Each structure stands twice: as C-alpha cells, then as structure tokens.
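Subgroup meeting minutes
Present: P.N., E.W., G.H.
Scribe: E.W.

1. P.N. recapped why we're keeping a running log of single-chain structure predictions: easier to compare across weeks, and new members can see raw inputs and outputs side by side.
2. G.H. added today's entry (415 aa).
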Amino acid sequence: MLAEHLDEDRRHVTAYGVDNTGATDATAAIKTILEMGGFWYFPAGTYFIRGYGEGSDTGGVSAVLTKSLNVLCHPDAVFRASDTIPIDNDFIRFNAPSGGAGLPPLGIEFVWVGGYFDQTTQCVSTSVPFGGTYPPPAGRVGASATNEALSLRLSYTVGSDTFAAARSTYIGQVVFYSGAHWETGGGDSAIYIGEGTGEGLIELCQFYGSRDTAIYASGISTGRQSLTVRDSFFENCFFGIYAKRGLTGFRYLDNTFRNCVGAMGASPVSRVAEKGLISGNISIGCSFMFRATLSDENIIEDNHVVSIGAFRADGTTPISPYSNIAGVMLEGSTRNIITNLTLGPILPGQTALSHGVYAEASGAVLSDENTVIGVLTTDYGRCVTFASGTANYIARCYNFGTLGLRDPSMPAGNS
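Output recorded in log:
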C-alpha cells in the first residue's frame, strides 16, 4: 500500500494548507508546495482545482520547477474540478524556469506516484483528432490547445540552444479517468511528457476514455531524451501512446489496450520519432496496434492482437477513421523489423480492409527495406500487404480461415 511506505522526510500537503476535503480551492496551495520541491504526500481526499467556464488557457495549476520533486499520492487522492465550472487548461502543468535560472547543474529528477485524475471535469481542447466529426459533449467545448491531466514541459532555451531541465522523469500507479469512452470523455491527453524530461519511465498506470492520446510523448530538438511505457492499461481511449517530435529509442513494453481507435504509434511533428522497441503488447478490439508514419528502424516483436476493430460509445457502431485496419501499419517508414505477430478475429461490422501488416507510402516517401517474419492471421484480407516500396522481405506469414490460405501481397522488387 502506498500510504504505508512514507519516508520520514516526506511532508503531508495538508499540513501546508492544501485542502483535501474538496470544500475549498486548493489550486494556489498545490502550486506553492510543488514549487518548493522535495518529498510530498497527498493523503486520500478530493483536491479541488480551480477552473473557469470560458476563455482560453483558464484554470489549473502551473508550477515552475527549479528543484527535484517526489510526489506520493494515496490511491484515493482525487484531483478534479467543479462539475459546473470545468477547467479549460491542463490540470497540473510543470514548466522549466526561463533560461534555466535556478536549476542545479545536473538538472532535476521528477517523480509522481499514485493518485486519481478525474478529467470528466475538463473541457475538450481544440487539438483533439477528428474533433469536427466527433464533437465534444455539451458543456465541454474548450478554447485551449491543451487540456492534459499531468503536463511536463521542462525544456528551456539559452540563445538558440535548447536544454532539458530534468535528467529523469518517473510516473507510476496513477489512474486517469476521462470518461467511459473517448467520445464522451473530457480533456485530451492524460499525460504529456514533453521536451526536457530526460530519461522517462511510465509504468503501472491506467487510462480510461482519453479523448486524444492517453500518453503524448514528445522529444527535444537537441540533447538525449527517451521514454519507456510498460505494464499499463488503456481502455476506450482514442489513441493509447504516441511518440512525436524526434523522440528516439522509445519503448512500449507489455501494455494492454482495449477498444482504442489506435493502440500505439510514432509520427513526425517537426522531427521524426524512430528506433523504438514495441514488444509484448496486447491489443483487444483496436483499429491498429502500432502505426509508424515516417518512423524508421523500429523493432516490433512478440505482440498479440486478440481481436481487431474498435467501436463507438454505443458499443455497436464500428469506427475506423482510416481505410485499413491492421496489426501494424507502416506509412513511408523504412528498415523496420516485425516478428512474431499473431492476430485474432475481426470483430463484427468492420468495413475497413483488414491486414496483419499493411505498408504504404506517405506522400512521396515509400516504405522500403522492411523485414516481416512470422505473421499469423485468420480470415483477414491479407496477412501482409505492401502497397508500395521495394527491398522488403517477408517470410513465414500465413492467413488461415474459411477463405483458405492467401499469400502476402506486394509489388515487384520485394521478396
């Protein structure tokens, strides 16, 4: 039990003016103790975070970190806003000081363990995917570009150079609840682990109904930064985990995804995210397990798709915003290695074309020099389809079922 293992130096936030009854606004007091750094404990209770009903970037805690921070929350420490005055901003945002002023020479360490973030009381941001097709619930239409639960933006600039304020980041055993399903959920991402967070580890967390990507991972323009996400559970989120902006060497290990439009992915925003390891994951009823867009040299091994095809909030209407559903999708991605991928049945009502692995171009960039070994599907359109690209290698890939064994499909120049 988290509450039974408190360090002697860990301070209870309630002794420093933070209300855990939910009766009064705790925003300013939480900001104060977080900026003090050190070891803190949030006991069970409700922590009311201020929100406003209109305008952009309103509400929430915004803390500037100059010292290492280690937060331990009781599992029943609940962070939420008012039902009638939602937050149109991040719940808790951590920032680096301007120019790195006051930071120790080796940077800081960030640790957050435990707690429950209720994002149903957050507005939906303006940047969620397919927001026009699937608009936010009434009363949750936001004007802010980001409405995350925990947002870490710990890079700073000196002249033209960018630096990381943190050398390491750890988040574990936290529950994020946006709603029963992304279509009716609040907020956008649960965690934004962004620029300047150093070597990151997220583990043993639970995510429900995230309207955008539950974990949005972003790299940094200069310097080393990486992220491991492992042993976590994602249900009814639009996306589970996405790496963007040059995040290199990311690792998605032994996670489980249920009824997400997409489980995991890597794509470029400003810079390419690549060289990931995607291993031991389980996808249940998602439109794709892993999608790589202009993302190279990833190793995708020993993953299992129990079933494929996601559904809207009514539980019966299938949804795929893409023309194909697949265990792995490659879009303009090269030198990826895919091994030991097994896929279970296509769920009823799915109309998109189905593949174990599907590869195509992204604009003028082809999917070249990929290796696919050991894909097993049953009654899919194809076990492996390369719609474009050359020098791809495919071996021991089979599609069984009532339609008989079908060979992989690929253009000339592949084997």
